[in-house]
């Protein structure tokens, strides 16, 4: 038992900072709830979950599920707390200091508008790949989630973006309005 | 992408997506949500990025343990501090590894099954008058912070310890705590509580 307890603490001391590091790389620098806060919440919730659970048939899979659900809940709760704290004005201000370049944000918005419009008709897979790409997923991660290969995911993103940019360029050349 | 009004999928469903444990229809629905919802996308992104670390964590934690002697409470301070933190983890692991044991003992009230106060897992707005548990045998009450670092320790009798003096001072700032009682080498708890003060 002592080995198990020591292992738990030892493993958390390794895993906890990894959670924090990933959060740090994924979150806005101005986020009201810090990666450290979320890491602590993950620790507590994971701990509570493990205390409650008994008679587990497949412990590795079960712990993995607990870890995933706990992280997902903790991140979403942090986002919900931030949303409730901020007024629309503050959110508008934050959108200007979210760390991304204005040009990149403008292009992202243009691509999103194009995806929502009916004048760029992407295939379902291309549209999904582009949307996930805009949400910050890498081709490998998109492939993992969609059960495509990484190469297929990369191609769908690349071709989808190219198709949208081509349409946008045509639109600008024509000076048209597709709203 | 921030104005998604539909209900968020459950964390369980998103976890199933990560583990490729969904039907195709559900996967399509979940991916459609993630594609439009910044909050869920961030949560999934972090989890995906941590996948190999989380799997290794789960695999290692699930490995069978072996027996080993518990460090004595008379040991050096650093050893004792380690033992206290470890005993918390032991209680966590106990709830988790119970499937491996054949030692059901009603005295050892693991997890959240005991008749204790404050109720485990609750959030309270002010300090409790006392911590109470159902076993009157003298024991060692230990308060820890959310990361299992000991904050306060005292001998307790009659199944309770009053919140005053140093214990009140420690709790006064509020926050998330864990507490347990060591009785005859066995552990009652640990239990989580959160105290949200006005300040």
Question: If you had to describe this structure to a student in words, what would you say it looks like?
Answer:
The complex is a heterodimer of chains A (about 180) and B (about 200). Helix content of chain A is about 75%, strand content about 0%. Chain A has about 180 residues and is mainly α. In chain A, helix 1 (about 1-25) packs antiparallel against helix 2 (about 35-50) and helix 6 crosses helix 8. The termini of chain A are far apart. The model of chain A is unreliable at about 90-100 (pLDDT under 50). Chain B is of the alpha+beta class. In chain B, helix 2 crosses helix 3 (about 40-50). Chain B has six helices and seven strands. The longest helix of chain B has 21 residues, at about 75-95. Chain B is elongated, with a radius of gyration of 21 Å. In chain B, a hairpin with a 2-residue loop joins strand 6 and strand 7 (about 185-195). Chains A and B meet through helix 1, helix 2, helix 3, helix 6 and helix 7 of A and helix 1, helix 2, helix 3, helix 4 and helix 5 of B.
């Amino acid at each position: 038992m002592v080995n198990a307890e020591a292992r738990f603490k030892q493993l958390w001391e390794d895993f906890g900072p990894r959670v924090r590091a990933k959060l740090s790389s994924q979150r806005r620098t101005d986020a009201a709830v810090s990666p450290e806060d979320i890491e602590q919440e993950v620790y507590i919730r994971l701990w509570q979950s493990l205390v409650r659970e008994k008679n587990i048939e497949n412990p590795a899979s079960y712990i993995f599920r607990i870890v995933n659900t706990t992280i997902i809940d903790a991140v979403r709760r942090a986002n919900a707390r931030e949303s409730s704290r901020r007024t629309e004005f503050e959110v508008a201000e934050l959108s200007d200091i979210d760390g991304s370049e204005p040009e990149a944000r403008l292009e992202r918005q243009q691509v999103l508008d194009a995806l929502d419009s009916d004048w760029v008709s992407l295939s379902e897979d291309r549209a999904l790949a582009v949307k996930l790409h805009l949400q910050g997923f890498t081709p490998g991660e998109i492939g993992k989630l969609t059960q495509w290969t990484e190469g297929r995911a990369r191609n769908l993103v690349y071709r989808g973006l190219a198709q949208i940019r081509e349409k946008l360029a045509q639109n600008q050349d024509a000076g048209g309005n597709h709203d | 992408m921030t104005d998604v009004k539909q209900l968020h999928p459950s964390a369980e469903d998103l976890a199933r997506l990560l583990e490729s444990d969904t039907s195709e229809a559900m996967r399509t629905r979940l991916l459609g949500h993630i594609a439009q919802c910044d909050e869920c996308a961030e949560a999934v992104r972090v989890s995906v990025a941590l996948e190999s670390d989380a799997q290794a964590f789960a695999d290692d934690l699930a490995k069978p343990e072996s027996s080993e002697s518990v460090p004595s409470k008379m040991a050096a301070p650093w050893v004792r501090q380690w033992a206290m933190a470890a005993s918390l983890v032991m209680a966590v692991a106990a709830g988790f590894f119970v499937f491996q044991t054949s030692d059901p003992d009603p005295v050892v009230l693991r997890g959240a099954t005991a008749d204790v106060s404050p109720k485990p897992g609750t959030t309270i707005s002010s300090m409790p008058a006392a911590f109470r548990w159902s076993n009157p045998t003298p024991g060692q009450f230990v308060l820890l912070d959310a990361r299992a670092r000991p904050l306060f320790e005292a001998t307790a009798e009659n199944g309770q310890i009053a919140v005053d003096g140093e214990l009140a001072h420690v709790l006064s700032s509020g926050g998330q705590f864990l507490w347990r009682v060591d009785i005859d080498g066995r552990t009652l708890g640990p239990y989580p509580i959160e105290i949200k003060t006005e300040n």
